[in-house]
Amino acid sequence: MSKKSFRQAINEALRQEMRRDPRVILMGEDVAGGQGGSSGVTDAWGGVLGVTKGLYTEFGPERVLDTPITEASYIGAAAGAAATGLRPVAELMFVDFVGCCLDQIMNQAAKFRYMFGGKARTPLVIRAMYGAGFNAAAQHSQALYPIFTHIPGLKVVVPSSPYEAKGLLIEAIRDDDPVIFLENKVMYDDEEEVPDEAYTIPFGEANLTREGDDVTLVAFGRMVGFANEAADRLAKDGISCTVIDPRTTSPLDSATILDCVADTGRLVIVDEASPRCNMATDVAALVAEEAFDALKAPIRRVTPPHTPVPFATVLEKLYLPDVGRIEAAVRSVMGYKARQEA
Amino acid sequence: MQIARDILLNSYRSMRTIREFEERLHTEFATGEIPGFVHLYCGEEASAVGVCAHLGDSDTIASTHRGHGHCIAKGVEVEGMMAEIYGRSTGVCRGKGGSMHIADLARGMLGANGIVGGGPPLICGAALSHKLLKTDGVAVAFYGDGASNEGTTLESLNLASVWKLPAVFVCEDNGYGEATGASYACAGTQKDRAAGFGMPYFECDGSDFFSVYDTAGEAITHARSGKGPVMLHVHLSRWYGHFEGDAMSYRASDEVAQQRMKHDCLSAFRARTTGAGLLDGATLDTIDSDTRSRIDDAVQAAKAAPLPQQEDLTRDVYVSY
């Protein structure tokens, strides 16, 4: 056990799984970097933000494959390779680039098993960066996990910390279904204690990062940290919150969410994705349908506005949910008074 | 090229099976009993069979929405295919895929595909599997002249060349992408496209089994020997519409009749093999009648087969969830 960054945790998960299983390969744009360059340096980048650094050097060009900047062909190739015996981990770099290759994910990889009557296995992992906070603007900052969650046949992972990232990525690589693994790019330098050995965290089992009696907070990815911080501040005022990190949006641990809402009677959902048809709406619908009688206050959703992600720092800060907004949402549900019947 | 007698007989049987299968579907579709869309491969049989004659179960193909011919040529059982097209639980995909998604991975058939240009990227991946797992196999993408313009196809030609994959890109050029002529929709030539990606180019007459067989043999040998991907451009004609029910108002009234009269791969095969004394007419007649019975049985069995059950609706979305 030692302190590792989110970046190191992911690199270690990939390295350990590649050592364990020769069918695991990596492909993507500049996952090594330097092929064909005039310096002759290979493994020049190790991924655009250095997440796959050193893997080319250890595993060589057959297992760490740089691709041309052609997302449709190599994401499709990863799906085809997965259906024929390999276990590819393809890196889409920024998840926003899914616009160039959604067919290969949505119509091919996700549907093989069902369309083919249960005969296909597609052990594919697609890693991609998501999230605002980097001044990367509208085409490099989106939180698109709801789009994937909407598609039957895909599993979707949104890790909230280095420890979570390592265990969930190893689980993803060993899983026999296509998995979308989304890494918040702002979190790469976050550090915490991460075991040196390989371990897995099962999909569809939420993690309770705080336990309390008054309000249930459900948060995804980077928002889990924000929710924890809000919960800690509120605790000082005597408001105790449960914070649920579902870890995966598909499968979703509905049971844990419903159990916690049954206990607290109040629900605030924190989601970095655009507000329409996002995870917050999905969880709100679930609770409204299954736990209506338990609710003591309306469900509140803390999300960005329905806009593209802006560039300017001041606007991007306004765009993202933050600790203050979460805190305010919790206080508002705590202060809710039902109108008396006339 | 001297072709062994059993290869000739199997190829004839395979072409006849495709023809019979498709002609029968044409008739049955008109009765309204077959749900969904059906795209027929009649007239193009020599292409699928001439290519797949060089492939085994350990080689992979990806097909198109016009996929029945490729499936049969690759060895998928017609009984399971027919049941699938009728939406029965005995279908090769248990009634969950239908005509456009017939797949049989055990036969190296990675699926027909409802998306134009869906197959070529998948075939890059299958070829990568063959290369890295050292199977000695090749992966073959069948795609039409319409799909030849898709970005996925052009990207795949590039990727396959960059990675030097054992991939074969078979462009089945029937002159129409749906209702639009290739002469309108395809800029330049397929040959120049292959050259643009540094890829050897082969072309052949898709109404002549021997032309396809010989040329595909050369192309596949090149890919299998580790020298990188190739393009095989097959010129052919489809005898029915884009889908069943297409009145083909975009084609000259006698175009298909002329093709049927002058460019029928089965008649040409029979004339050539019997003329040269390689096969005798009676043997081919027997294949014809056996095939007719087999397709007839497949249709009867499909119609009598059980429908999927309610629990099938939610089964097999995931391996585990």
UniProtKB/TrEMBL annotation, chain A:
<dbReference type="InterPro" id="IPR009014">
    <property type="entry name" value="Transketo_C/PFOR_II"/>
</dbReference>
<dbReference type="InterPro" id="IPR005475">
    <property type="entry name" value="Transketolase-like_Pyr-bd"/>
</dbReference>
<protein>
    <submittedName>
        <fullName>Acetoin catabolism protein AcoB</fullName>
    </submittedName>
</protein>
<dbReference type="GO" id="GO:0016491">
    <property type="term" value="F:oxidoreductase activity"/>
</dbReference>
<dbReference type="Pfam" id="PF02779">
    <property type="entry name" value="Transket_pyr"/>
</dbReference>
<keyword id="KW-0560">Oxidoreductase</keyword>
<feature type="domain" description="Transketolase-like pyrimidine-binding">
    <location>
        <begin position="4"/>
        <end position="190"/>
    </location>
</feature>
<dbReference type="Pfam" id="PF02780">
    <property type="entry name" value="Transketolase_C"/>
</dbReference>
<dbReference type="InterPro" id="IPR029061">
    <property type="entry name" value="THDP-binding"/>
</dbReference>
<dbReference type="InterPro" id="IPR033248">
    <property type="entry name" value="Transketolase_C"/>
</dbReference>
UniProtKB/TrEMBL annotation, chain B:
<feature type="domain" description="Dehydrogenase E1 component">
    <location>
        <begin position="14"/>
        <end position="309"/>
    </location>
</feature>
<comment type="function">
    <text>The pyruvate dehydrogenase complex catalyzes the overall conversion of pyruvate to acetyl-CoA and CO(2). It contains multiple copies of three enzymatic components: pyruvate dehydrogenase (E1), dihydrolipoamide acetyltransferase (E2) and lipoamide dehydrogenase (E3).</text>
</comment>
<dbReference type="GO" id="GO:0006086">
    <property type="term" value="P:pyruvate decarboxylation to acetyl-CoA"/>
</dbReference>
<dbReference type="InterPro" id="IPR050642">
    <property type="entry name" value="PDH_E1_Alpha_Subunit"/>
</dbReference>
<keyword id="KW-0786">Thiamine pyrophosphate</keyword>
<dbReference type="GO" id="GO:0004739">
    <property type="term" value="F:pyruvate dehydrogenase (acetyl-transferring) activity"/>
</dbReference>
<dbReference type="Pfam" id="PF00676">
    <property type="entry name" value="E1_dh"/>
</dbReference>
<dbReference type="InterPro" id="IPR029061">
    <property type="entry name" value="THDP-binding"/>
</dbReference>
<protein>
    <submittedName>
        <fullName>Dehydrogenase E1 component</fullName>
    </submittedName>
</protein>
<dbReference type="InterPro" id="IPR001017">
    <property type="entry name" value="DH_E1"/>
</dbReference>
<keyword id="KW-0560">Oxidoreductase</keyword>
